[in-house]
Amino acid sequence: MGLFDYSDHKDWMAAELPSRIHLLYNVIPEIPISWVHSPGINMDMALNGALQCDHKKMAEESKYMLKLLNGVKTLKVTAPGGTDIEIKIPQEFRWDTDCRIVPPGADGEKGVFGNMPVGEIWSEKRKKVKVFDGLEKTEYEKDYPIPLLANGLLVCDVCVGMHDGALNEKQKLYIEFTDGNVSKSYCDDKFLADKIFNQWTDAETRYGLPTVLEEIGIGFNDKARPTGNMLESEKMGKTMHLAAGNIGLHVDMLFADPTVLATYNDESYKRIMDKGYV
Ligand SMILES: [Fe+2]
How far is the centre of ligand 1, averaged over its atoms, from the C-alpha of 111 (Å)? Predict the structure, then answer.
């Protein structure tokens, strides 16, 4: 288990985390070691928060939800906060869960690498694209999201990545998506609006690529809290999160009590979540 405390050097996380993740993704699946990865964990999270959940119950729930998501082609998501969005899932997307960190067998089975605390199901995918960096005036290859083809409104009313704490009534973020791209964004709180939305307009200007819907996630951890630390918050039970992505950018936005109608490849449909309950 790797515990990394960045509280005295907040900038260390951004500096060393991506290279460590790259190393772990490549090494752990090849050797008989499982690795639990906890960037930014703290004692409060461990003793009072998401680590205290019922892991067995969560593993069962997430397994059942993965079954429900098998063969899904469209999700229609609504929520009491105002979210009303339809998301087409491209064929190459897969659903995954971190609700199980399996210890490798004594006979040397290969390991699993994942975050701790755990508690979500998600789907996202990136691919390498050639871009011209307008800031450094050079062309290179970078990871860019394959967009989930969303149309409609996301109202983020729980918490948002890169912002501490739960959002109050005035801090709700309204994001409109058109064919997968962020087409409009609004928030009453000007400070928060600038902090969040400027990141994606900066990326758009720098690389000339739109900010898109990169990820859908569903939380299952009943002890996770809206602290704004996404290691914990994006796993909150009875929430979903959608993330806006661009080159070097991933902003998770949570909303409460989603109702989800799934349409499958064979045109059948099913309500797979009702006001946050599976
Ligand atoms: Fe995310």
Answer: 23
C-alpha 254 to ligand 1 mean position (Å): 10
Q: Which two tokens stand for residue 47?
A: 């003793």
Distance 159 CA to ligand 1 centre (A): 12
Integer Cα distance of 183 and 39 in angstroms: 32
CA of 107 to the centre of ligand 1 (A): 34
CA of 156 to the centre of ligand 1 (A): 14
Ligand 1 centroid distance, CA of 242 (Å): 7
Give the C-alpha separation, 61 to 56, whole Å.
Answer: 9
Q: How far is the CA of 194 from the centre of ligand 1 (A)?
A: 20
For ligand 1, the distance from its centroid to the CA atom of residue 230, given in whole angstroms, is 8
Q: Residue 239, Cβ neighbours under 10 Å: how many?
A: 26
Question: 169 C-alpha to center of ligand 1: Å?
Answer: 23
**Length of the chain as a residue count:** 278
Cα(216) to ligand 1 centroid in Å equals 8
Is residue 185 within 8 A of residue 174, CB to CB? The reply is: yes
Q: Per-residue confidence of the chain (278 residues) as pLDDT tens digits?
A: 777 777 888 788 777 777 888 888 888 888 888 888 887 788 898 899 999 999 889 989 999 999 999 999 999 999 999 999 999 999 999 999 988 766 666 666 777 778 889 999 999 999 999 999 999 999 999 999 999 999 999 999 999 998 999 999 999 999 999 999 999 999 999 999 999 999 999 999 999 999 999 999 999 999 999 998 888 999 999 999 999 999 999 999 999 999 999 999 999 999 999 999 99
Task: Judge contact between 14 and 40, C-beta under 8 A.
Answer: no
Distance (Å, rounded) from C-alpha 50 to C-alpha 78? 26
